[in-house]
Amino acid sequence: MLKAKEDYFKNIQNLLSELKTYQNELDKIDVALPKDPFLPETLNLLEKKCREKGLDLKKISSSQSLEKKEKEGSLEETTVELSLYGNYRLFKDFLSELEKSARFIEVEKISLSPSKEGGIDFDLVGKIYHY
To answer: In what order do the strands lie in the sheet with 56-64?
Structure first.
């Protein structure tokens, strides 16, 4: 009985050591899918990416799903809406930056229309996920 417990704890120690070798990968997953939506940081990231790519951010908003988590560990989502102004190339560069972002952001809908100022108005609806 004692030998079985010693083997059991030794096995747990070995698994823990092996898990530590994957710490970098686990940290990346934590950034992409955090336990908290970190909305201020995420909205700030989106605003910063818009500025860096030369787009005018006209409006940004978010709304969390009111559905209850079905089970512990399941993903929750927050909808993010952006209204932007610029040209197609700048918007394409912005989308490329979102795709490269460490934070998992899913673009659900994009609409565009000619602006009175001569550029293009873009409306983007996306989702960010968290546990």
So the answer is: 56-64, 76-86, 120-130, 105-114
What's the token pair of residue 47?
Answer: 């605003």
Token pair recorded at residue 99: 């795709």
CA-wise closest residue to 106 among 71, 80, 74, 87? 80
Superfamily of the domain at 33-130:
Ribosomal protein S6/Translation elongation factor EF1B (3.30.70.60)
In sequence order, what DSSP letters do the residues of 3-24 get, joined into one string?
HHHHHHHHHHHHHHHHHHTTHH
Q: Please report the beta strands in the chain, taking only residues with DSSP state E, as ranges in sequence order.
A: 56-64, 76-86, 105-114, 120-130
Query: Counting Cβ atoms within 10 Å, is residue 27 exposed (0-12), middle (13-18) or buried (19+)?
Result: exposed
Query: Which residue ranges make up each domain of the chain?
Result: 1-32, 33-130
- State the residue for tokens 């990416």: 49
| Position 31 confidence tier, pLDDT thresholds 50, 70, 90 | low
Read off the pLDDT of residues 81-120 as tens digits, 9 standing for 90 and up: 999 999 999 999 999 998 888 878 899 999 999 998 899 9
